[in-house]
Amino acid sequence: MAQPQFILWRRTDRHFLVLSAVLVVVLAMLITLLYVVFSVRKVEGPSMEPTLIQGDRVLETKGYDAPSVGDVVSIVTVDKNGARSRIIKRVVAVPGDTVEVLGDVAYVNGEVSAVAPHAIVGGQSFHLGPMTVPDGSVYVLGDNRPVSLDSRYIGFIPLGSIRGKAIAVIFPPWRVGAIDE
Questions:
Q1: Active site residue 89
Q2: How many angstroms separate the Cα of 98 from the Cα of each of 7, 95, 155, 181?
Q3: Which is nearest to 148 in space by CA: 171, 167, 112, 121?
C-alpha cells in the first residue's frame, strides 16, 4: 500500500496566497494614501452651499501651501470664543490682488470675482476695501455668502493656516464627485 503523499502547496493555494498578498499591499497603500497624503473632513454648516452641503465628507490634501484663485481650502482659525476650529472656504484673491467687497459681491482687481458664479448672495449692504492682499495671505469667501464666516469678518488668511485643498466629495454616494473650481 502506498503512503499518502503530503502536498505542501497546491496550485490553487499558491494563487490564493498571491491574491492575498496583492490585496494586503493594495490595502496598505490605500490606508497610507488616506492617512498620510489625504484626509477626510466633514462639512459643518451651510456656508459653502451649493458646492458643499452640510454633512458631506470631502477628501482633502494635506500640506497645501500654494493656493490658487478658485481653490476650496480647509483652514484652521480661531472662533469668537477663542477655540480653534476648521472651516472650508473658497480662495477669491491671492497676494498682490486688490479686493473690494460690496455686500456679498467681491471685486478682485476691479472686476466682479467669477470664481464662484453659482454663489448665493443676499442683500447685505456693507462695504470693505479696496485692500491689497499681503504676501503670505489669501482672501477667502464662502459660496453661501449671507451665512458665511469668511475673510469679510476674520480678515486675510495666512498661508500657514491652510491645512489642505478639498478635491472631491466622497460621501454620501449620490454626491460623489470632484469639487468644481
A1: yes
A2: 77, 9, 14, 21
A3: 121
The length of the chain is 181
129-157 pLDDT, tens digit each: 899 999 999 999 999 999 988 999 889 99
Q: Which of 20, 39, 42, 47 is catalytic?
A: 47
Distance CA 53, CA 6 (A): 61
Q: Is the peptide bond before 146 cis (omega within 30 degrees of 0)?
A: no
Contact 54, 48 (CB under 8 A): no
pLDDT at 164 over 80: yes
Name, in order, each residue with C-beta under 8 angstroms of 126's C-beta and a sequence gap of 6 or more: 101, 103, 152
47 tagged catalytic? yes
Contact 99, 110 (CB under 8 A): no
147: how many CB neighbours lie within 10 A of its CB?
13
Catalytic residue among 89, 113, 137, 151: 89
* Residue at grid coordinates 491645512: 163
Taking CB atoms within 8 Å and a gap of at least 24, the contacts of 33-37 are 36/62, 37/61, 37/62
